[in-house]
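## Example pair
The file below holds two records. Each record gives the amino-acid sequence first, followed by its structure token line.
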Amino acid sequence: MDPRHAIRWLSSLVLTSVRSGMASAFALKALFTISNFALVTLAARTLGLEVFGNYSLLFSAAGLLSIVATFGQQVLVMRFWSEYVAGGRCDLLKGSLLFSGAVCLTGCVLVGLPFYVWCTLAYSSSIGAAVTLYLVTVSLVMTTSHLIRTAVGIEAGDGFGNLLLTIPAISYLGYCLAAQREAELAALFGVMAAGGAAGLLIHLRLLCRSLNEKFPGFWRTRPAFDLSRWLARSTKLWASNGLEASNQYLDVLVVGALLDPAAAGAYFVVTRVANILSVATDAIHMFSTRHIPDLYYHRELTQLDALLDMVARVTIAVIIGGLLTIAAGGSQLLAIFNGAYAPFHGALLILSFGAASIAAAGPSASLLMLTGHEGRYLAVVGGSVLLRVVGLFVLLPHFGLTGGAIATTAALLAMALVLRHSAKDWTGIEGSVLRLIGQFRRDDKVRMAD
């Protein structure tokens, strides 16, 4: 058989699996987006502008610190699993899981205790306890969901954790709205923490079952440790993930500090609507981190190319559809949360272009982090955060939320361009949507040769 035809035949088989996985990832992400949209809408309508602003600040602070508390393990556990399963190293896999578990629990204590003290002093002891419990459960669920995504599948890894963090809160706020009762921040974060704890227990059960299936003698195996290597990787990934989290949550906190909680609540809503485009980014992340490490460490580069081509096509479709939706109906979407947010359509459009640029970079960040180039990724994210913070402090006082949107979008655009360039240079793989240009050229050459 002609090698070119053999490659195309093999790629068609891979694409069938890729399409199924991508469809599942996008369906899950769409479901998560709808549930988060419902949560934020109900919170905005039941809490009032001022209290909702405080909710936005606490939610953003807990989200940022929950990622800091993982100390890089959410990404590292995926690499551990793929690398040690591929190499048949049950002893190192067991040691690495014990290492990651100990690091995560330590991180939750080191981050959670001072946060509880601050939150209690700033608000109340009940709010402090509830938000701190939410922070801890999110941190642990985030780490285990990444591991289960790789070990079992996207649906098991991301489905339980994400939905159980939001559905109890939606139910509570829906009850308060129907019964015309005032929702309380402590109760809201408390039910979110309870849902996260349930998701964590499910993840641990799935992990035990997967270990029993893949390594029947796992529990009798003596663990092996490579602490110096793991600590070095953890440090880089911890810094990278912390800075990456800053890109998700920091601007809301800065807006609250420079303006007021009500403005922070408005900016929180605007960023959530702009994150319609994160359906592409997050689905790509879920899907890519499920498959990239396995394909990379097994050196199945033809299948990896086929996967990335499919990701790029779907990403372009989502970006175009999302931008058109926001341009045409952005004001109406903002008004769903509260009519006071509708005038921020301009800021929403600006933020949407920033989100689109990150989506267009595709799994470039995953390629760097999962293939041993986490140090390069750290430098890219660090530069982006610095640019973002400087822009926010310069533009927010003079131009309000529109200035904040400009600063954020400029930083995201710069980050997307550098990520694409870095991934291509350091891994030899084009992860952005620009890879389709090369594919079209390759297809033309094949047709001409035929």
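Second record, same layout:
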Amino acid sequence: MDSSKSKELEERLREAGLRVTATRVEVYEFLRELGGHHSVDDIFKALTERGHKIPRMTVYNVVTDLEGVGLLMCADAGPGRALYEVADVWHHHYVCRVCGTIFDVPCLVGEKPCLTPPGTLPGSVDEAQVIFRGVCRDCSGSEKGVNE
């Protein structure tokens, strides 16, 4: 990634209240470049294959830090490994029941929490995620989605 992009990412880390470290920049830059939804193991493996010598636990800690300040979000796709992605825009997910592919689905409200629960809850709500499930176009063999 070019130097101006790295400077921009460093500034985002500072604005989020994080100290800028080489490891935080590497992980954040890598996830921005890669896009999509990835587990800590996926991130660790890919960085290792690219020659980065970052311990797995450090990658986990960096991902936790970045999620904690809102630069990454956990893509809630149901049971299984936690999957992370860059959190530029609040959105939901569609998960194919056949192949497991996760697709981003725009949130109609665009910010969290975008749903108001009925009745009372035992605490405040700061986030609501919707998971759409079905069979994607590729797996269904059709050119149109179920609701198109």
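Notes on the second record: The mean pLDDT is 86. The domain at 3-74 is CATH 1.10.10.10 (Arc Repressor Mutant, subunit A).
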